[in-house]
Protein: Oxidoreductase
Amino acid sequence: MSKSWLRPTSLFLSGLLGAGGVALAAAATHTGATQLLGNASTMCLAHAPILLGIYVGWERIKTAAPAAILLGVGTVLFTGDLISRHFTGSGAFPMAAPIGGVGMILGWLALAAAAFFKTARL
Structure:
């Protein structure tokens, strides 16, 4: 599988999650819907910087691709489910939030695993 699209996708998702996190924080504050929208905002704003960091360190982080995929997709699934629950009263699909949460956890573990791989000097 070619990974040439993954690096710019991590930057793109970082920007989208950052913008979405700020918008969700505003929506949560102005509507008082802090439980679901506030939690979705927190997850977006927590994971946007790490995707940016992965983008910046892509060449030195040996597990950058799986970490970015797991963190990005996991965050989208988790927050998408919370947003869906708020606006429609039902989740995106059964188990979307737990699957997204496990994806985020595995993404962080994939990033941690990079500590055990040698990197080339740049």
Summary: The longest helix spans residues 6-31. The helical segments are 6-31, 34-56, 64-88, 96-113. Residues 6-115 form one domain.
